[in-house]
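Reply to dn_fold:

You asked what the input looked like. This is it:
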Amino acid sequence: METFSDRLMAAIDRKGCPITVGLDPRLDLMPPTLVRTYIAQHGETHRAASLAIRDFNLRLLDALAPHVPTVKVQVAFYEAFGPAGMEVFADTLREARQRGLIVIADVKRGDIELTAQAYASAYLGSSLPGVMLSPGFEADAITVNPYVGGDGVFPFVAAARSHGKGLFILVKTSNPTSGDVQNLLVDGQPLYERLASLILQWGHGTEGTRGYQAVGAVVGATYPAEAERLRQLMPHTYFLVPGYGAQGAGAADVQACFAADGYGAIVNSSRAILYAYRQEAYRALGEERFPEAARAAVLAMKEELAAVLRPSS
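and this is what came back:
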């Protein structure tokens, strides 16, 4: 079975960039005409909001799938609209995978063993004794919160290993207050560094033919010094890198997340791409052509990253 890291790297090679687009739909930022169309048909309901999101997502996927290797789908933006929203969440995962994209479900799960097994079964593949059902929300990888320790991570690792899937474990996140917990010293070492050593243990034996493990790390672009240290500690770990674009990080900030060969990280951008039609550079396209604006923003990001990720000789 091909490992997750090998599949991810092959997709990056095909598309020529290490970009993942975060599908984080917000009604207040989506094209107003699109949203009003569904509200006119279904009223101010969860169904109207969810149908508008589905339309928005599918048009974006058609525009972006030829240019990016992965998308990251954040469950909270769908869960907010109840069962109708979760139906669109499932549709989005499925439609993205049908377009050949590597799909990361950003669900940040993490709980004690039996609960973790159930979560793993929901997103990665059957991991419950006697249960062989396919995942209810199948993705290629998920994000995992390691706060409960190994008991809450091992079931995800087992499912990833069995089904050729991947994990991205929270290590040093991009938000301003991440240091409240992640920078706490443990025997003189920041907690995020201790997590790095655990991830190496958890991922042992999941390496692909190109050397990277299937157990990756979430490392924010907004902390480039910490990212550089984590890259030293985890040379064969893939990083999922949030913080690019709307959160303030640029291409130079993400450079430390990559290995010398130009691999080792995928950089997420959400608002700066999804809602590019609102930016001055693309406003002339108008709201109806929002997929074209998003594609143009991806191509611009691709050039920005390429300028700083030339492999070392």
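Strands lie at 19-23, 70-74, 102-109, 141-144, 166-172, 185-186, 189-190, 215-219, 239-241, 265-269.
Hope that clears it up.
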